[in-house]
Amino acid sequence: MIKDSHIVLGITGSIAAYKGADLASKLTQGGAIVDVVMTKAACELIRPMTFKALTNRPIHTDMWDVAHEGISHIELAKAADAVLIAPASADFIAKLAYGLADDILSATVLATRSPIVIAPAMNVNMYENSITQENIQKLKDRGFIFIEPAEGHLACGDVGRGKLADVEDIIGEMHKIIGRSGPMAGKKVVVTAGGTREPIDSVRFISNLSSGKMGYAIAEAARDQGANVVLVTSSQIKCPAGIEPVHVQTALEMRDAVHKACKDADAIIMAAAVADYHLETPFKNKIKKKSATLDLNLVRTPDIIAEVKGDLVKIGFAAESEDINKNAKAKLKKKGLDLIVANDVTQDAWGFGSEYNKVTLIDPEGNVNEYPVMTKRKVADLILDWLTSSPKWVK
Ligand code: CTP
Fold first, then answer.
1. Fewer C-beta neighbours within 10 Å, C or N terminus of the chain?
2. Which residues line ligand 1 at a C-beta cut-off of 6 Å?
């Protein structure tokens, strides 16, 4: 959704201005048209030419530029799908809170009707100062969206909250905001990811090779199309911005989280590799190696997706190493799914841990669509294309 969207990126006088270059670059690489608007203070910290080279667009620094034929701040304000100010200094936030418009960036903000996203970055004392906090609250009350700064070592030597949020998190948030009017807007999608961990004793567990990448790609793709996404994950990968994570470890924890999240969901996409067996009662202490062999009494875990009831669309995966389509069709039927995504997990070039996957989509009507190897993100888009055009979703 961010592709071809028009983002006005405001850079203000914070030492984190250099991180704005990374933002400009990544948004441009994502296909957005990025118009950078810089305050005078920002130009002291980083040169406009950096942004010009990264965005391949003219850079706006002066409201009184006679060489420009139109009225820059009004043109920018109207064209924007979103205005992002990152980094936003304490001074600039104060300016916005009072509706001042004496430079090209503040005038653009005042003139736009698009969502305005602010990512503050400043010294911890400046951030925590009640004046700044009051200004932030004032803007939040007016509908400005804030991306909280992170805690850590600040350029001034202090330690505390004030670091610009992670560039990846800011980009994730922008995807969500731009996607708000997408085809999945107003819908709730539950996605699962990762291999579950079933404890044996206090230090050991049974798990599998699933990295969680496929589920995360689906969660991001659904977010980008405007869905409210709940990601039930046993993976160690950081949850992308704009997605609600529910961290679990075991199949039973995943089952509880999925059932809770599915109560008001429109779809469940179960990409997790759930353990089929677990120890009903794991050993409390570390097992000592007393004998030559060790018998573990494993019992079946519940089939989470088969148990999900209700009118939501159910999509499962079939991890197969032989008779792929035949086994996948049997699972589709047995689990009462609307779609199964079959994949061959014997190939290193795709599947577990890889950025790629090769899938076949099979539905209960007997349609079998086999696809070539593609990135997991492309597979995610395919699945969501199927989902958003399925009769159960459209109804
Ligand atoms: N699944 C589930 N609960 C389980 C096991 C699997 O919800 N206890 C889901 C998976 O997330 C996946 C689908 O069911 O969407 C198929 O999982 P897969 O591991 O391929 O098959 P299993 O049902 O476990 O059968 P088998 O291991 O015998 O192939």
1. C
2. 251, 270, 272-274, 276, 301, 303-305, 316-319, 331, 335
